[in-house]
Amino acid sequence: MTETTDKLDFKRILPVFVIVLVDLLGLTIIIPLMPLYAASYGADALMIGLLSGAYPVMQFVAAPVLGRLSDRFGRKPILLVSQLGTFAGFLLMGLANALPMLFIARIIDGISGANISTAQAVLTDNTSEKNRTQALGLIGAAFGLGFTIGPVLAYISLALSRNNYHVTALVAAGCSLISILLTTFWLKESLPPARRGTQHGPVLDFGATIRAIKRPEIGFLLVLIFAQQFVFGGLEYLLPLFTLSRLGMSAGSNAILFIFIGVLTVIILGGLIRRWSAQHGDRWLIMLGLGALAVGMILTATTPRQPAPGYSQDALRLELNNGNAVTALDQQKLKIELPADNNNGWLGWGWIFVAMVPVAIGGSVLSPTINSVITKRVPVAETGAILGIAASMSSLANAVTPIVGGAMFQFLGTTMPFLATGLFTILLLALAMPRIRNSASPTAAVT
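^ thats the sequence. predicted structure below, dont judge the formating
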C-alpha cells in the first residue's frame, strides 16, 4: 500500500535502508581499491578507465530491463537477482589472478546491477510526493554510511592481510551475502499483485529511454541525471588514481579520504537535505548541487603535487606488488607515475580534503533530488521503469566518464579530467537555471 500521509514511515522504509547500506558496503570497500588493484596487474590509466566502465556499460543495458520486470513481478525477486550477481562478481574478484578476471567480475556484477533503482522503487511505493525527497535522500545517506564504514573495513582488511587486495574483495563478497539474507528474510514486497503488470510492452525496449528523454515533463531531468553523474562518477573512479599519482596516497590513505567523504554525505543526507528541501524546494537543491560540484572539481584539479611527510616511493611500490620484493621488472610493470621522495608536506593532503567538501555536497544532493522530481511527474505504474531508465542514464555516464577521464588522465595530464568536468558543470548550471523553476509548491517544475 502506498504511503499517503506527509509524515515518513521510518518503520516501513528501515529494511530498505539497512539492506541498501549493507549492499553498498561491498561497493564502497572496493572503490578505493579498484584502480590500485588494476595498477598492480600493470594496467595504465586508460585500461583502468575501461575496467571501471565495464560494470556501468552492462548496468546501462540491464537496469531498465530489471526495472520493468520489477513493475511486472514485484520488487523483491528482482532485488534478489541483482544481489546474487553482485555477490558472484565480488567472489570472482577475490579469486582473480590476472587483469581479465577483474573485467569478468565487473561484467557479471553489471549485468545484474539494479540494486539501487529497485530499492528506490520500493521507497516510492511507500511514500507520498511530499516526503519522497526525504525518503530517497535516505538512500544517499545509506551510501554515505557505506562510504564511511566500507573504507574502514577496507582499511582494516588491508592492515590485517598486509595489503592483500584479494582479501578485501572477499570481505566485499561477504557483505553482499549478508544483504541477500536480509532481503530474503526481512524485506516485504511493496508492490501488491493488483498493481503489477499494468504497463504493457516489451521488457527489452531500448527505445523506451529515447521516448522518456523526449517527454517534456522529465526529459531534461533524465539528461541532467546523466550529466551530473558524468562529472561525479569521474571523480569517484579516478580519485584513487589521482591521489596515488599526485600525492602518493596508498590504498589505506585513500580509504581515509573516502571515510571523510562518507561522513560528510551522512551529515548532508541524514538531515540537511530534509531541511533544505522543506525550506528552499527542489530547484534550490539542484542549483546548490551543481554549483558545489563545479567548485569541488576545480579545487581537486588544482591540488598541489606534494606527498605527506613519511611518504616513501619504494614502500608504495612494495604495497602495489602485494608485499613482494620490487624488482626492475615490477617497476616497469607499474604504468602510473608516483611522486618522488622530496618536497613532502601537508599542503597536498589538506587541499584535497578541503576540495572534497563541495564535492560531497554536490554528489549527495543531486541524484536523490532529481529522482524525486522525476517520480512526481510519472504515473505510479511507471515508477519502476522510469527509475530504471534514470539508473541506466547514470550507468551510461559511469561507463563513459572513466574511459574519457582515463584517456585524459593518461594523455593530457592528471589534472585535466577534473578541470574539464568542473567547467562542464558550470555550463550545466547555466543550462539548468532557466529550465527548472519553482512552482507554487516546493516541487520543481520543468519547462
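The domain at 10-191+215-439 is CATH 1.20.1250.20 (Growth Hormone; Chain: A;).
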